[in-house]
Amino acid sequence: MVTTTESTAYETDLDLFSDEVLLEPFEHYRELRDMGPVVYLKKYDLYGLFRYDQVRNALNNWEVFSSAQGVALNPIANEAWKNSILCMDPPEHRKIRKVFDDALRPKFIRKVAGDIEQQAETLVDELVQRGEFDGVTDFAHKLPVSIVMDLVGFPRDEGRDKILGWAVNSFNFAGPPGERQTASLPLAQAQLEYLINNAKPENLLPDSFGKVVYAAADRGEITHEEAVTMMLGYANAGLDTTINAVGSTLWLLARKPDQWDAIRQDPKLVPSAFLEGIRLESPAQFFSRVTTEDADVDGVTIPRGSRVLHSYASANRDERHYPNPDTFDARRNPVDILAFDSGIHTCPGRTLASMEGHALFTALAKRVSKIELTGEPTRTPNSITRGLDTLPIRVS
Ligand code: HEM
């Protein structure tokens, strides 16, 4: 690390996207926060924001920190996603955003996805009977997969299994150039082809998001290309993020029996505890923006045209904002976390993810007094997301 002049960023040689750092990132994030308000990541030619205030301020200033040149960390993904809502500034963003907002209101979700609480109760009943299960594949996967696939309207066939694999892959596709990104390319192509060939309007479930966006395209409000991109974005954004949030929160609770006891005694703590799990593990660790002019961040100049990475995960553990940031506190209720972004791109799926998480952990709190790990969880490094692959659990 070298310091140049006061108005330029601290520089680091740290490889933020190495497997080693992605698997154990939090100590590195703390060091990056301590270096200064802006850190230049030499290996990736990226300016990085790691502190809470700086990340939130940038996210709320889309005129300077723009999404229009893409939010991914490589040019191939930014070109492929150029019609995605993620990669738009106003006024284009407003038109597409309205379609997402309408389709992610609780009323629409309940109409299409049915009784989420009942689905959670049925699943947890079955898992409690088994006693031992996998906290990711048996517990965290089920609701997001069936609900998001129904909402988008994908036919209920074997294509659904592929879609989940593609969604995980799409986040590596958005990472910096390197092995993980190269390996993701064929799968990203396969996903697009599946959508174009199989997710045609006539194949989609009635009343689904897919039907809504194709109808908007037929009316000329959006193009058909935009309709396909929206379905792709919805599936990619809504699956792995929620699965990671649920799996990670279960893992944290298995290691904190006193916190689980508190939740069982007062199940009204479930929403706060679920947010706390998301704060600590941040299912999406980072995205990026490009500066439209020289940007002053606490006295440090980021030159116009620079790609700026913002770390939700580091901001959510910033000791300047949260006391004892590394401690899981079921009562903290961190409603201001940045894990769902902030500003105009704030996640429109936050309500849906919360409905799923609350339903699952409430059903568990009614039936289970003890959550124990029966082995080591596993995780694969991903360029954007953080979550477990497997989580061996026993409940009683
Ligand atoms: C715990 C679960 C989730 C987390 C942590 C999460 C996180 C995020 C983040 C950080 C962004 C902003 C990205 C950026 O601006 O660069 C975002 C946007 C988005 N999310 Fe989520 N998300 C979650 C669940 C969902 C679900 C369930 C859906 C839909 C089914 C969804 C759909 C979207 C969409 C469509 C956007 C783009 C919004 C825009 O650009 O205006 N997300 N999400």
Describe this structure in words.
By secondary structure, this protein is of the alpha+beta class. The protein has one domain: Cytochrome P450 (Cytochrome p450). It is built from 18 helices and 11 strands. The protein has helices at residues 19-23, 26-35, 52-59, 75-80, 92-103, 106-113, 116-130, 135-140, 142-152, 159-173, 179-198, 209-218, 224-238, 240-254, 257-265, 270-281, 312-315, 350-367, and strands at 10-12, 39-41, 46-49, 65-66, 132-134, 286-291, 295-297, 300-302, 307-311, 371-373, 392-395. The strands form 3 sheets. The chain has a 6-stranded mixed sheet with strand order 1-2-3-9-6-4. α9 (142-152) runs antiparallel to α13 (224-238) and α16 packs across α18. The longest helix has 20 residues, at 179-198. Mean pLDDT is 93; it is low at 1-5. The chain binds protoporphyrin IX containing FE (HEM). The site of protoporphyrin IX containing FE (HEM) has 28 residues, from α5, α13, α14 and α18.
Going by helix content, strand content and strand pairing, the class is: alpha+beta
Biggest β-sheet strands, sense, barrel? 6 strands, mixed
Number of domains: 1
Order of SSEs, N→C? Answer: EHHEEHEHHHHEHHHHHHHHHEEEEHHEE
- Major sheet: order of its strands? 1-2-3-9-6-4
**Helical amount:** 40-55%
Helix count from the secondary structure assignment: 18
What are the low-pLDDT stretches, counting only 5+ consecutive residues below 50?
A: 1-5
Mean pLDDT: 93
Unique bound compounds: protoporphyrin IX containing FE
Query: What's the total count of β strands?
Result: 11
Distance between the termini: 50 Å
CATH architecture: Orthogonal Bundle
Into which percentage range does the β-strand content fall?
Answer: 5-15%
Shape: globular
CATH homologous superfamily caption: Cytochrome P450
CATH fold group: Cytochrome p450
The gyration radius over C-alpha positions equals: 21 Å
The top level CATH class name: Mainly Alpha
Pfam families: p450 (PF00067)
Family: Belongs to the cytochrome P450 family.
Organism: Amycolatopsis deserti
Protein name: Cytochrome P450
